[in-house]
Amino acid sequence: LAETIALSLPPWDVASESVSDMSELSDEEVLELSELQLPAKQDRRLSKLLRKQQDRALSVQEHTELSVLMQCYQEGLLRKAQALHEAVQRQLREPLEP
Hints:
The chain is an all-alpha fold. It has four helices and no strands. α2 (27-34) crosses α4. The model has no long low-confidence stretch (mean pLDDT 85).
């Protein structure tokens, strides 16, 4: 079931590519990844499942879907952080302020 859900989710554009070394990417690709966000449809579904989880226990299918979406979110967040770091190192953008 988790594999079926994962396959039904669209990839994250550039982030869907295996990015093992940010230094190999062009400035444009690094900047694009630094602005990465979960696609709107996935973001809405993730939010809905998180709200449901607060109100009641999720079904097995919902729990699996939530797990897959959370994994996509976390992987995207990691790529975004790596890209932000690389963008600052290349002086493509200013460091984030606390």
